[in-house]
Amino acid sequence: xxxxxxxxxxxxxxxxxxxxxxxxxxxxxxxxxxxxxxxxxxxxxxxxxxxxxxxxxxxxxxxxxxxxxxxxxxxxxxxxxxxxxxxxxxxxxxxxxxxxxxxxxxxxxxxxxxxxxxxxxxxxxxxxxxxxxxxxxxxxxxxxxxxxxxxxxxxxxxxxxxxx
Length: 164
What we know:
The chain is of the alpha/beta class and 164 residues long. It has helices at 31-40, 42-51, 86-102, 122-135, 151-161; strands at residues 2-7, 17-23, 59-63, 71-78, 107-110, 143-148.
């Protein structure tokens, strides 16, 4: 499985699925969720909310509306307090990878879970997410893209991958 980092809008990527940094009720407000909803349409949130609430650390999938991706995988990295921690970032990353594989997807874009609204440290997030992806044994997944926002985030994830 190839791991890559791209800086930019996750909603514009042409991959089988993009992951949403979700809350446990799957409401799509700000951050990654808001960007996906604006670009893909309200139907993504309607589908997601109908599947919730879910346990924090788990993931569910919906259609992708008008996005270039085919699916949105909603990784519940935080509860209603909108906070997360290392264990939840780890569990959510693994849940998203497993769900993508269960769906026989070949490519998945992941945001930097919990680093926006959740205020989780970017460096720790990158180490955890890259570590989980490296340890994961895929069945169908061939490509995981860490889709991050800003030069700092890109550099941190590239360092975690060893690309710098």
